[in-house]
Design goal:
Layout: E1 2-5, H1 11-21, H2 28-35, E2 40-47, E3 50-59, E4 63-71, H3 80-94, E5 99-104, H4 109-117, E6 121-131, E7 134-143
């Protein structure tokens, strides 16, 4: 598996995966806009020529926030998300950032298990954050120590 910077060439595949897996997906134009954002970093996971996952983060002077992350269902539990987060962790630390946050559905047990194994801790809850279906979000943060 290879982790690389997302480029324009991967936007359609990313948007397709987003639409297949996320209840309120980002459009191609929204993802494309992130590539032009100087405060965003998007990575893709490739298995050969196949895009199997992606991770997008927006960051500021002290920390970052995961804005989107997905792994193709047929590639889950094969290390794609873990590899994406490992590379993102290295990139954010190189920028001297202090933390990374994300929101996750309380019902998403596999994602919660992954995030906890990566050092994320629950720091809050956002009532009614998700709309389709309606559900709170858990706010998790990983502090770079």
């Amino acid at each position: 598996m290879e982790i690389i910077d997302m480029t324009e060439a991967y936007v359609p595949q990313t948007a397709a995966l987003e639409a297949a897996c996320i209840s309120e997906p980002w459009s191609e134009n929204q993802i494309r806009g992130e590539l032009a954002n100087p405060w965003a970093l998007w990575l893709v996971a490739l298995a050969g020529d196949t895009l199997v996952g992606y991770l997008g983060v927006e960051y500021g002077p002290d920390g970052g926030n995961v804005v989107s992350v997905t792994t193709d269902p047929s590639f889950r539990r094969r290390g794609a998300a873990r590899a994406l987060f490992a590379e993102m962790d290295a990139r954010l630390r190189a920028l001297d950032l202090q933390y990374l946050t994300l929101e996750v559905r309380p019902s998403n047990a596999p994602a919660l298990a992954l995030y906890h194994s990566l050092g994320f801790q629950q720091v809050g809850r956002r009532p009614g954050y998700y709309q389709k279906p309606k559900e709170d979000a858990l706010l998790l943060t990983c502090y770079f120590g």
